């Protein structure tokens, strides 16, 4: 094993770059001992790299954060928006089986390892992944569309309700395939250290989607949202693909062969996808529970208040998660287990502290902030006031959810994907149980509290299991190598 690491080829030369989207600086030379020859993805500190990305994320991903606000202003909360959110949540569940393949998944550590140890094999690995994802994604999109259409036809009997739900199926089905290619190029660029391209592509895609929505919303209503999002994903893909294949010099050799890294990815990703798919049931359960409370538009208010509470984690995650996964993957490939452990622990603690401060601020200013954000157009005062009551229950889960995001990436970088199915099942069962209990006591607020409680308990289990994983590594490794 050590001899193989010593013979690992040198990293590829840095590709040509363009202003604003250049990758991180090339890795520093490997340490002298022959035991460690696989380079880390970035010589910069994790905090410095992430902070340098934060302005890009805020500037270029602002449209994604504004989307719920714009939808609330243009469409308000009603039975029709509840049905739209239910269909959207349904495709989010199905979509977890597609875009979950590549985004911050087991693919990143595998690509980091292949690029460092056998760069000539990388085009074949990427080409095999792209070909199989296209075939599987296309088949899944068709089956998903047919399944959701049959379910909606059975659920909604009124002609208007059935027409609204059914008309959303085709665009959301197409979005699954578009998102597969989009996240494939995002992952390929992330593994190369090109972290800034994704937010730029997101800005182009969201601007396109909002432009289309602004033109069509009066004639199509909420029905215009789905096709607008599809076209937006295609616009983002039109940015990502040329940068990846051109400036970043990523090469694809399309093939249906399955080299060893692809087979390894398939084994790891099955557990990740199964766990992710189970967790994606939670929004459906929450929407169904919200409907059972009898509050008109309650599902929409629950979703909008949760979106507001999720802003801190969205910012932290967008700037930190891609860099963290690449950094931890490099540490694990180099067998620097102590550094991996120290980075993971420090990151979790720092993120929890920052999120705690953000939660206190959001709690204090929640009413004026929600009025500023949501009290426009079709949204009324009563709806905003109810969101102000819901927000504190969501805020209780912000800190543990942020820790959970970091811990998942730590497990993924270790190749420990097999635990994701069990963790997803635990997440779903806890959410369903807490929903049943808390909804009876607090109504919509109880559903929000359920989500927060689940985040706290699942994060704790992830932390315990990560400590066990480190103990196994320490027991199996040579102490001279793991520092």
Please characterize this protein's 3D structure.
The chain is mostly helical. It is 76% helix and 0% strand. It has 20 helices and no strands. It is globular and about 60 Å long. The two termini are 17 Å apart. The relative contact order is 0.13. The N terminus is likely disordered.
> What order do the SSEs take from the amino end to the carboxyl end, as H and E?
HHHHHHHHHHHHHHHHHHHH
Question: What portion of residues belong to β-strands?
Answer: under 5%
Low-pLDDT sequence parts: 1-20, 24-44
Mean pLDDT: 80
* Outline: globular
Roughly how much helix do the residues carry, as a percent range? over 70%
What structural category do the secondary elements indicate? mainly alpha
Question: TL;DR of this structure?
Answer:
Helix content is 76%, strand content 0%.
SSE blueprint and pairings:
Blueprint: H1 2-6, H2 46-60, H3 62-75, H4 79-95, H5 107-117, H6 122-155, H7 159-167, H8 169-191, H9 197-220, H10 225-247, H11 260-279, H12 281-292, H13 298-309, H14 311-333, H15 337-364, H16 366-374, H17 381-395, H18 398-413, H19 420-442, H20 444-476
Helix pairs in contact: 2-9, 2-14, 3-9, 4-8, 4-12, 5-8, 5-11, 5-14, 6-8, 8-10, 9-10, 11-19, 12-13, 12-19, 13-17, 13-20, 14-15, 14-18, 15-18, 16-17, 17-20, 18-20, 19-20
């Amino acid at each position: 094993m050590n001899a193989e690491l010593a013979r690992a080829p040198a990293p590829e030369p840095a590709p040509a770059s363009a202003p604003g989207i250049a990758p991180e600086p090339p890795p520093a030379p490997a340490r002298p001992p022959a035991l460690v020859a696989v380079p880390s993805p970035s010589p910069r500190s994790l905090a410095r790299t992430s902070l340098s990305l934060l302005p890009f994320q805020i500037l270029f991903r602002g449209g994604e954060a504004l989307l719920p606000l714009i939808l609330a202003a243009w469409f308000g909360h009603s039975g029709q928006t509840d049905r739209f959110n239910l269909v959207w949540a349904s495709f989010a569940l199905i979509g977890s089986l597609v875009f979950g393949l590549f985004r911050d998944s087991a693919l990143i550590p595998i690509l980091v390892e292949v690029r460092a140890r056998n760069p000539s094999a990388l085009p074949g690995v990427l080409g095999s992944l792209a070909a199989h994802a296209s075939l599987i994604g296309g088949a899944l999109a068709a089956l998903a569309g047919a399944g959701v259409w049959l379910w909606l036809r059975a659920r909604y009997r009124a002609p208007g309700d059935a027409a609204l739900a059914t008309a959303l199926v085709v665009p959301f089905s197409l979005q699954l395939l578009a998102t597969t290619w989009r996240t494939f190029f995002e992952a390929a660029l992330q593994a190369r250290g090109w972290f800034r391209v994704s937010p730029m592509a997101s800005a182009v895609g969201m601007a396109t989607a909002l432009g289309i929505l602004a033109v069509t919303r009066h004639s199509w209503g909420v029905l215009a949202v789905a096709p607008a999002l599809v076209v937006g994903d295609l616009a983002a893909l039109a940015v990502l693909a040329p940068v990846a294949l051109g400036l970043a010099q990523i090469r694809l050799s399309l093939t249906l062969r399955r080299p060893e890294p692809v087979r390894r990815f398939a084994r790891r990703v099955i557990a990740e996808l199964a766990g992710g798919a189970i967790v994606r049931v939670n929004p459906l359960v929450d929407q169904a529970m919200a409907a059972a409370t009898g509050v008109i538009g309650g599902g929409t208010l629950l979703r909008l208040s949760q979106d507001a509470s999720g802003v801190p984690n969205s910012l932290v995650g967008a700037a930190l998660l891609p860099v963290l996964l690449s950094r931890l993957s490099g540490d694990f490939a180099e067998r620097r287990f102590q550094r991996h452990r120290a980075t993971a622990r420090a990151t979790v603690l720092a993120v929890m502290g920052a999120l705690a401060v953000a939660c206190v601020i959001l709690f204090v200013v929640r009413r004026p902030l929600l009025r500023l954000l949501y009290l426009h157009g079709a949204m009324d005062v009563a709806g905003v006031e109810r969101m102000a009551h819901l927000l504190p229950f969501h805020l209780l889960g912000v800190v543990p959810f942020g820790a959970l995001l970091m811990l998942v990436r730590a497990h993924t970088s270790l190749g420990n994907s097999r635990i994701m199915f069990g963790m997803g099942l635990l997440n779903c069962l806890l959410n369903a149980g807490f929903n049943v209990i808390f909804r009876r006591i607090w109504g919509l607020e109880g559903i929000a509290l359920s989500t927060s409680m689940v985040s706290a308990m699942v994060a704790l289990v992830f932390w315990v299991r990560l400590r066990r994983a480190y103990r196994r590594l320490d027991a199996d490794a040579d102490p001279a190598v793991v520092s």
